[in-house]
């Protein structure tokens, strides 16, 4: 009779090579999978923001150039694509990215909060400001996007709305105190969000290494500053009368 | 040195806990933090009170048994283990807060002792390496590039103390798991199970109720063995690679 060489454990499903039955949990179930979704959707939105910011700068070259650019966006891809189709394709992609980003952020945040049910009595400040404000910053940005669309896309809340004349509408927004305040606060939140977000996305996608850490951080900071400065230059120019 | 300690006291896993204040006197600055707690416990035993329960073993900084969050820092203000933390890091008359590791995956057993069995189960999920046992293999049979050997050794230094989880605001075990995964995945000896190891260990880590990584960097700052933050990126890369290739 052979001798028993292994002690039977109470949990036979977890043998020496782990839970055989549930070896490949779905990508979405894993925290790393959710973070990958968050990183990719974040990078899609970031890519859009860079293009959006560069487009905004056309406001410094007058109403004709800015409004012409807005019109060109609608005829992009023609004659192959119908009027506004390219724009709608981008909108659908962005909506998918926003939803994926928000859902993964919500689910991961819930897991994170559940993983530390009892807080430390001795509090101390942890992590950088940009890192600590990722969740609230994200919510602020979500609300800002809603306002921004109602203000300059649907023109619902724009007081001096003039359909088909984005240059005049931008000026209308930035000639109100609240328009400037909402916009500049949101862009500050965006800069902070990008600062930690871009670097984190790089880590999540496995691009980080000891050698590249400094370069990635510098690039994330640079991107945050460029986006903030580029976007905020428009309300500042309107306020100072450079653009009128 | 005379100190005021505020220590987390909890009779059992399900009992409510509280911070209790104790005065300790006659502490030498050459004592380790654990020796200071031994002094407190001797006092408590003489007074007929229940001594403070805390984990400790080698007291040489190599076993990973000691824990304690001291003034909000895992293993205290120096970058070392609690057993290698000396009282010279504190000043006479200080008030020191001592708390257990806080994480859903590390339930408190008593006072400052937590159950770190979740770490053992993550390691168990990683399984074995496929290697012949018996006589020692010929040392030159399997060549390992120096850079890979250094990378593996850097991660093999992890003693599994759990400071990374205690320091992380999300109670995440990503740094620990990455140390274990990277250690074996970079070596030829660990390569037959490269994909299953990372998939199984990460799945187990999630099942144990650890949070996700938000790259705050608190773990790497607290780690007494200096496991670096990019280790997490290296594990993410391994995980994504394994998902693409599928477990073999």
TrEMBL record, chain B:
It comes from Streptomyces caledonius. Residues 149-179 form the 4Fe-4S ferredoxin-type domain. Belongs to the succinate dehydrogenase/fumarate reductase iron-sulfur protein family. PROSITE patterns: 2FE2S_FER_1, 2FE2S_FER_2, 4FE4S_FER_1, 4FE4S_FER_2. Residues 1-102 form the 2Fe-2S ferredoxin-type domain. InterPro entries: 2Fe-2S_ferredoxin-like_sf, 2Fe-2S_ferredoxin-type, 2Fe2S_fd_BS, 4Fe4S_Fe-S-bd, 4Fe4S_Fe_S_CS, Beta-grasp_dom_sf, Helical_ferredxn, SDH/FRD_Iron-Sulfur. Keywords: Iron, Iron-sulfur, Metal-binding. The keyword Repeat does not apply. It holds the Pfam family Fer4_7. SUPFAM superfamilies: 2Fe-2S ferredoxin-like, alpha-helical ferredoxin. Transmembrane segments: none annotated. Its cofactor is [2Fe-2S] cluster; [3Fe-4S] cluster. This is Succinate dehydrogenase/fumarate reductase iron-sulfur subunit.
């Amino acid at each position: 009779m052979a001798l028993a060489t292994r002690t039977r454990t109470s949990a036979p499903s977890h043998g020496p090579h782990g839970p055989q039955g549930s070896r490949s949990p779905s990508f979405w179930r894993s925290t790393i999978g959710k973070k990958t979704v968050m990183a990719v959707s974040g990078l899609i939105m970031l890519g859009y923001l860079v293009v959006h910011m560069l487009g905004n700068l056309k406001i410094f070259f007058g109403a004709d150039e800015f409004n012409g650019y807005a019109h060109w966006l609608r005829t992009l891809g023609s004659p192959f694509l119908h009027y506004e189709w390219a724009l709608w394709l981008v909108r659908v992609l962005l909506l998918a990215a926003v939803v994926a980003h928000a859902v993964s952020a919500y689910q991961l945040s819930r897991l994170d909060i559940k993983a530390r049910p009892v807080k430390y009595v001795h509090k101390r400040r942890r992590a950088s400001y940009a890192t600590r404000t990722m969740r609230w910053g994200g919510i602020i940005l979500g609300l800002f996007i809603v306002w921004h669309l109602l203000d300059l896309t649907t023109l619902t809340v724009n007081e001096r709305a003039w359909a088909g004349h984005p240059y005049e509408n931008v000026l209308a927004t930035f000639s109100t105190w609240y328009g400037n305040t909402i916009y500049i606060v949101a862009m500050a939140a965006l800069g902070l969000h990008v600062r930690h977000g871009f670097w984190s996305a790089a880590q999540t996608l496995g691009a980080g290494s000891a050698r590249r850490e400094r370069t990635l951080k510098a690039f994330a900071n640079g991107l945050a500053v460029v986006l903030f400065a580029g976007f905020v230059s428009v309300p500042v120019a309107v306020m100072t009368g450079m653009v009128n | 040195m005379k100190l005021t300690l505020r220590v987390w006291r909890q009779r059992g896993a399900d009992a409510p806990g509280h911070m209790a204040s104790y005065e300790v006197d006659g502490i030498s600055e050459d004592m380790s933090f654990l020796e200071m707690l031994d002094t407190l416990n001797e006092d408590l035993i003489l007074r007929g009170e229940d001594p403070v329960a805390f984990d400790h073993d080698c007291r040489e900084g190599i076993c990973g048994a000691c824990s304690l969050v001291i003034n909000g820092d895992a293993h205290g203000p120096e970058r070392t283990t609690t057993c290698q933390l000396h009282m010279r890091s504190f000043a006479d008359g200080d008030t020191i807060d001592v708390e257990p590791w806080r994480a859903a995956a590390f339930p408190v057993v008593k006072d400052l002792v937590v159950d770190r069995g979740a770490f053992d189960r993550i390691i168990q999920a990683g399984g074995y390496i496929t290697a012949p046992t018996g006589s020692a293999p010929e040392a030159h049979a399997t060549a390992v590039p120096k850079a890979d050997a250094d990378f593996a050794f850097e991660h093999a230094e992890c003693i599994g103390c759990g400071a990374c989880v205690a320091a992380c605001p999300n109670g995440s075990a990503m740094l620990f798991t990455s140390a274990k995964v990277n250690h074996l995945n970079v070596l030829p000896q660990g390569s037959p199970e490269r994909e299953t190891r990372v998939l199984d260990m990460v799945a187990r880590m999630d099942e144990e109720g650890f949070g996700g990584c938000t790259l705050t960097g608190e773990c790497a700052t607290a780690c007494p063995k200096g496991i670096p933050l990019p280790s997490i990126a290296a594990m993410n890369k391994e995980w994504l690679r394994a998902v693409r290739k599928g477990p073999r």
